């Protein structure tokens, strides 16, 4: 899926470019009528010329003001739209691809890519079509109306300006490229430092990290300063070049080598600025464009990553899930055999305790049952029909899953328990009591609206697990998957929690991964997973 900003912002871009073309035309026409006025000075007085001159003069600032609205709208919405699309992509991306992208790197990629996408469409192509091209063409057309013979000389001027400025900009480009690379490296060091506070502090890594950041920042500052100086030199140099052309025109006119009226001469001097400035601007924005293209291409690579089509395609699943069968299942991930020929028969109404040494593949088995990983061979059957034939979004209506990683997200306590369901506060509070979180809730400032930090910072591991567990009371799913969901709880709390959820688990198909043999008393059947093989054992 490539992002087509042209199509999405067609209306805004058309208005923006349309107004720009009108402004360019009116500015060029204004000089033309100014020349007419000068040439008729002291001879005739034509009201219509004065009127058009005045009108072109007044309309330019008016339209320039109106242009600010589509421009500002596009500037913000293009950037936000690209980031919104990154969220849409994450919602559909294949799980195995998702695992390969680091969240820090993705954050950087989307920030830089969204800004680059906006620059390419608005600041490069937008400016080219609304300003640079029309300004050049309209002004050339009006110059031709003064004297056609000037056009070839102006075109030679273009060539000279283009070649000279291009040479300078090659240096600018290489500097910008290096500055971008060092800025990226700085950002990763920065993000790493902010997110890995505890690991870096205990391992005494911060000193090195800060020194590294300091060095990089000095280096980048140096490059950015150099870049600005070349920028400024470029515009200064360009201004001298245009000044020389203006002097040449005056000399040619005064030595009668070109025949031109006084008004024509004044107009020519103004036109020279207007026809050469777009070349200079083009050269500068082209350098930025070629760099932005790289950042935007990187974001597009992310947009092209495979999506999990099974999320929306396939048969609907409305009937209750009574059976989950794992049949001759093998899973290979990154050329590593994780599961081999595993076979299991699971029924609704039973709790299955899934055990096995660390790395045996318990989570991988669960994730394959959840449709996150695809079987390499064999299949997962839902009510005796291949899971691959079903639409996963429908399947997830029937599934409740607590992962072994921190299951808390940034948001309020209430959101973390019921997501966007509508449930009375008293009901939620009663569930918190059942989940052994009564005292925690009483002490919490802000109650259910209290903000819980990213990944549940400020909460103990056990509190996080119990909050996530509270979700179980608000689900209608008949398949319950608990992946070491109580590993951080002490035995007494865990016992109380299991006693409280007993009724919730009745008539459900429950798969419970656990490393604690004691927890197996809750299981009707124990499944022992050995490395690369699943074996069903008796309860
Ligand atoms: N996406 C992946 N790509 C490659 N290898 C993976 C992937 N996910 C897991 N593995 C590997 O598969 C093996 C099984 O991992 P898994 O997490 O399923 O084991 P587990 O039995 O749940 O372990 P634990 O009890 O420690 O949580 C491990 O060796 C792990 O490194």
UniProtKB/TrEMBL annotation:
Chief location of this protein within or outside the cell: membrane
Pfam families assigned: ABC_tran
Subcellular location: Cell membrane
GO molecular function, one term: ATP binding
Membrane topology: Multi-pass membrane protein
Membrane-crossing segments per the record: 12-35, 47-66, 128-145, 151-169, 233-255, 275-291
CDD domains noted in UniProt: ABCC_MRP_Like
UniProt xrefs under Gene3D superfamilies: ABC transporter type 1, transmembrane domain (1.20.1560.10), P-loop containing nucleotide triphosphate hydrolases (3.40.50.300)
Domain of life from the UniProt record: Bacteria
ABC transporter domain ranges (all copies): 324-539
InterPro entries in the record: AAA+_ATPase, ABC1_TM_dom, ABC1_TM_sf, ABC_transporter-like_ATP-bd, ABC_transporter-like_CS, P-loop_NTPase, Type_1_exporter
Record-annotated ABC transmembrane type-1 domain positions: 17-291
Keywords: ATP-binding, Membrane, Nucleotide-binding, Transmembrane, Transmembrane helix
The protein, known as: ABC transporter ATP-binding protein
Species of origin: Enterococcus entomosocium
